[in-house]
Write a structure and sequence with these properties.
The chain has helices spanning 2-10, 17-24, 29-43, 86-98, 115-131, 145-154, 179-191, 208-220, 247-260, 277-285, 304-313; strands at 49-57, 103-108, 135-139, 158-160, 195-197, 200-202, 225-230, 265-268, 290-293. It has 318 residues and is an alpha/beta fold.
Length: 318
């Protein structure tokens, strides 16, 4: 049955609910990971896609996302600063470019930028486009179609907006904006001619079925860059005492995402420092073919020089 489903995915056929239930409960994890590996080698891009992000504006957000240190209503300790200037942003982008990183993303806290900040972001995007060869991405909240079109005109190539989890679980971790608002951003970004990046956080208390529903939604939306974040509990947030996922559950989740999204970049993102090097290698084997490298938003990342060695050893062109 496992080999049959592997062949079905490689042939381009969608999986049915019974197929996914079988995979969720498949008892021999190494066999499941090997099947996901086979799908990755046939269907997914083999050049590893590394992206670095800059936290361009930080702190005291109006939203109530229960995992986030920047939510103003919680008591997490985080630095607060306004939108960075274009020269500082360029310095960070050039540092990434010198390391061989090809994608650079601007991330701002808050539901969406103010009119003043949005005008400044357009200037920054144009400045980076003129002075680097980087592919530019941005995660700026709940933007309108007009704003997304303006960013595209300025030189942006990709818009990021995580769905975070399934539609049914999302209200348990955020109530100040809706799942449909996030979907609308992705659809409007595509309408504006941008590619899209969207994934979620695992380990917030959701079920494996929630993760499968998220992956299916991303497939329906034709998302080809899918960040998978591991919850990193932060003191002062409501999820500060959430129990970590087991290594086996993390690896099973990655394999299931590869079965559902055979052609996507599955991007290991926040929380990856929780993984031992051995588990990281297993994650790369079972479907991960992209990552956010360097520092993350409010937690530490990993050095790209060491990452490149591991990515190459996993068989990817870097």
């Amino acid at each position: 049955m496992l080999k049959t489903l592997q062949a079905k995915v490689i042939a381009g056929e969608p999986l049915h609910s019974a197929d996914l239930t079988f995979l969720m409960h498949y008892p021999v994890l190494p066999e499941l990971l090997a099947a996901a590996h086979a799908i990755t080698r046939v269907c997914a891009p083999q050049r590893f896609d590394a992206c670095s992000i800059i936290n361009a504006k930080c702190g005291r957000c109006s939203e109530d996302c229960r995992w986030c240190a920047q939510a103003g209503r919680y008591h997490a300790v985080t630095t607060v600063y306004p939108l960075i200037d274009k020269d500082r942003c360029l310095q960070a982008a050039l540092a990434c470019e010198r390391q061989g990183i090809h994608r650079f993303s601007l991330v701002t806290g808050g539901k969406k930028p103010t009119a003043h900040d949005f005008a400044s972001l357009l200037v920054i995007i144009k400045y980076l486009k003129e002075n680097t060869s980087l592919s530019l991405c941005a995660s700026l909240g709940l933007l309108s179609l007009e704003q997304l079109a303006a960013l595209k005109e300025a030189g942006l190539e990709r818009c990021h907006c995580n769905l975070e989890s399934s539609a049914s679980f999302f209200p348990q971790v955020c109530t100040t904006h809706s799942y449909q608002e996030k979907i609308a951003v992705l659809q409007d970004a595509q309408a504006a001619g941008l590619s899209v990046c969207s994934g979620g956080i695992i380990g917030m208390g959701e079920s494996m079925d929630d993760r499968v529903q998220l992956a299916q939604t991303l497939r329906q939306l034709q998302v080809d860059s899918v960040p998978l974040n591991l919850l990193q509990p932060i003191a002062g947030t409501p999820l500060a005492k959430q129990d970590p996922l087991s290594e086996d559950e993390i690896l099973r989740t990655i394999a299931l995402f590869r079965f559902i999204l055979p052609h996507a970049y599955l991007r290991l993102a926040g929380g990856r420092r929780q993984l031992t090097e051995e588990v990281l290698r297993q994650a790369l084997y079972s479907g991960i073919n992209a990552a956010i490298v360097g520092d993350f938003l409010t937690t530490s990342g990993a050095t790209f020089a060491h990452d490149k060695i591991i990515f190459a050893q996993a068989g990817y062109a870097v």
